[in-house]
Specification:
With about 60 residues, the protein is an all-alpha fold. The protein has a domain of about 40 residues. The chain is about 60% helix and about 0% strand. The chain contains 2 helices and no strands. The radius of gyration is 14 Å and the shape is elongated. The model has no long low-confidence stretch (mean pLDDT about 85).
Length: about 60
């Protein structure tokens, strides 16, 4: 079976906007980790990729 290669959440979706780089900076800062807005954006992109992989893996496993 071929795996889906698209994002589970469309670009520009309101769900994609809920966790902003600024919120990531604040959340991590509260726990003692200082990051810039640019670093927070990279972290968010990575988290979204990992979430997409997890969802796709789940859906792929369900079909077997």
């Amino acid at each position: 079976m071929e795996r889906v290669k698209h994002s589970a959440i469309p670009e520009g979706s309101e769900y994609r906007k809920k966790l902003t780089p600024e919120k990531v900076v604040n959340i991590l800062g509260k726990h003692g980790t200082k990051v810039s807005a640019e670093e927070a954006e990279i972290i968010l992109q990575f988290m979204r990729k990992i979430a997409d992989v997890a969802v796709n893996q789940y859906l792929y496993d369900k079909k077997d």
